[in-house]
Automatic annotation (TrEMBL):
This is Transcription regulator. It comes from Staphylococcus aureus. GO terms for molecular function: DNA binding. Gene3D superfamilies: lambda repressor-like DNA-binding domains (1.10.260.40).
Amino acid sequence: MKNKVSNYRRYIGLTQNQMANNLKISVTAYRNKERGITPFKDSEKVFIKNKLIENGIKDITIDDIFFN
């Protein structure tokens, strides 16, 4: 199952470029992760979860974002 990162990213108003910059990776690397071509590192998953919480998506888990 494909992760839902792109939907959540757009919901909080961030571009792939902004997320890549936040994670200190290239836009191409980020795009490949979002498409499921390469996996997100655990530290990236935690960062994304915390970014969503900061932007008002409370009570979200890594499982909600990446696995459910």
